[in-house]
Automatic annotation (TrEMBL):
Parts forming coiled coils: none
Organism for this UniProt entry: Cupriavidus agavae
Pfam families listed in its UniProt record: FMN_red
InterPro entries (UniProt xref): Flavoprotein-like_sf, FMN_Rdtase-like_dom, FMN_Rdtase_MsuE-like, NAD(P)H-dep_FMN_reductase
Molecular functions per Gene Ontology: oxidoreductase activity
Protein family per UniProt: Belongs to the SsuE family.
Residue intervals of the NADPH-dependent FMN reductase-like domain: 6-148
Superkingdom, natural source: Bacteria
Protein name in UniProt: FMN reductase
Alphabetical keyword list: Flavoprotein, FMN, Oxidoreductase
Amino acid sequence: MSTPLKVVAVNGSAHQPSRTLVLIEALLAGLGQRLVLDSRIVDLSEIARPLGAALTRAELPAGVEAQVAAIESADLVIAAAPVYRGSFPGHFKHLFDLVGMTALADKPVLLAATGGSDRHALVLEHQLRPLFGFLQALTLPIGVYASTADFDGYEIGEGALAERIRLAVDRAAPLFAASARPLRRAA
Ligand SMILES: Cc1cc2nc3c(=O)[nH]c(=O)nc-3n(C[C@H](O)[C@H](O)[C@H](O)COP(=O)(O)O)c2cc1C
């Protein structure tokens, strides 16, 4: 019996619709083909306002506190954010400022980001990875960046982005062998 992998995906976009959310859903779908998942999305579009009003963890409303606690207890965090001014949005950082200082230590984190332009693809390496490095998380080697041109509106077709998502899933899935879906026998 596989043990479900608790995946908590954080969407750092406070907007709807959200390409970052579309990317998260594609990553979860890809991982879900390989692993038994117990997944949850923490969506800034739902919690950005109460989150922003809380200066400390103690000031968080119960519903948002539960989402922060879910991040802390995840087996795998997908940290996905849109690029704002060359980095992640401030409210995304504020969320992780309220996560316990050592709660992400040794926790696998899959990085993802979307931006208007390909020129900011290294936001994964120069902004997101150092943040999670500070938190002592185990950031997975391959993250996924997507620019607006990679999407067909708010959909992901069968182009280069789908290939990058497959690669990230192929590299991530073997790390969670205890949650692997049983292989289907060929008829
Ligand atoms: C305030 C703001 C700043 C942005 N700054 C950048 C930027 O520096 N580089 C970039 O490539 N895109 C930038 N963008 C575009 C967004 O990153 C891009 O549209 C992203 O996919 C939006 O994600 P969402 O659809 O999940 O909200 C910016 C957008 C906003 C609203």
